[in-house]
Amino acid sequence: MNLINRVWQSSLGKKYIMALTGCALFFFLIGHLLGNLQVFGQPELINTYAHFLKSKPGLLWGARLGLLACVGLHILAAVQLTAMNKEARPQGYAGGSAYGASKASQYMIVSGLVILAFVVYHLAHFTALLPGVNGTGDFRKLTTVLHGQTVPDVYAMMILGFQVWWVVAFYLIAQWMLFNHLGHGLASMFQSLGLRNHVWWPRVQGFAKLASIGIFIGYAIIPVAIFLRIVGADYAEKAKHQFSQSSPPAATLIAEVNGKEAK
Amino acid sequence: MKVTLKVWRQKNANTPGGFKTYSSPDLNENMSFLEMLDVVNEELANKGEEPIAFDHDCREGICGTCSLVIDGKPHGPHQGVATCQTYMRSFKNGDEIVIEPFRAKAFPLIKDLVVDRAAFDRIQHAGGFISVRTGAAPDANSIPVPKENADLAMDAAQCIGCGACVAACKNASAMLFVAAKVSHLGLMPQGQPERYKRVKAMVDQMDAEGFGGCTVTGSCEAVCPKEISLDFIARMNRDYGVALLKGEPKAMEGGGVG
After folding, report:
1. Which of A18, A89, A106 to substitute to test the interface with B, most B CBs within 10 Å?
2. Cα distance from B29 to chain A (closest Cα, Å)?
3. Domains of chain A (ranges, CATH numbers)
């Protein structure tokens, strides 16, 4: 406890926490992206994956609680450090300030808060499946049949969810903020942990740039491709009917789509 | 040439301050920025007004006494140069120049453009030294030092402790100063016995003085008159992490012999 206390009490120690939790969240972003990109395959691909995750509640809730702890610590440390930083300069400058600092580095707390707002919305949208927030219908009614089992039709939720323009706009804004947040944060992570010298700094900066661009493109193409009806437009038309039905005839839907593809 | 100055005037820490505008007399463009202030002050004194208080000493860029935030940048428009070696030829005839003191809670204002930078001295007292036997000078090269370490230590030792890093940082963080002082001793063999005790003591003092934290914006490096690198901050972060993991030294029971 002594070590934890000393880490938390020091400004450098809080930066270590920021860096380590940020690193864990970065790995989650990669895993989550790989999971989501399965939407570019057959509907069964991502539905099977989603069903696999749901069928391992221990693993799922372990990961969720771990992520929640990381997010909580990351935000708590950020808020406390920001308060300390504000307090350190009670009076600002008239002639401009933060000379030579990039915009991304100056507004980390702002991009971070937008990302937080997005995460809350994203959880309501696709995890809690709150019907009021998606602008189209009740996602809980969307089901499909997988190996004789009726399971939530995650593919249909994504296809229908990203046909709503303001949802796509919000996702893209949040992803742009994430791009800025990662562009600065990924490099700073190495700096805060002291993993830097004159040889490694250009490499670290190159990694941060490439990784943030990769994450941005990877996440942004999903809503964009769906909104432009490049992916799953036919499937969406069929799935939409389930919104108006009390109990969805999932089996017919899947048979219809499969039949069409077979032609 | 002539310029207009918008200068922060404040009688003392307890009196609210504000900007006052002055027109300079005719200036030689090869005057230093501080000489320009001298000329303006002479005119103010002749008119019976209170001259503008500002810090200065060596005026050759090595003492770290001069300060000033000029048009939003500590030490004026150039890179790797202190205010005292900034010349009026860097400005244009008729320019309006905003001059402010270094702003930080840890650097309380004394008067006009003069701030108290004793917080830096207290950080130095906490650990910015090595304990050695004094006496006759040791033989040269009796302790081998790798050339690259000697060079890096010299880079860090160039820090003149002016406080521009604090003034520029959006968080008023003193990380670059403390990192330079920690590193210049930590890179040398003579600094090893107290290396981890030093970094812990100096960082803890830095936190106690009320400086902000580092968000790696790079402003400090950009304004440093000695162009000290952010690499040293990473070095300090590393040493501090090791110091935390090492923990406090083992408590000794009883005394030694004699």
Report:
1. A89
2. 23
3. 12-84+107-262 (1.20.1300)
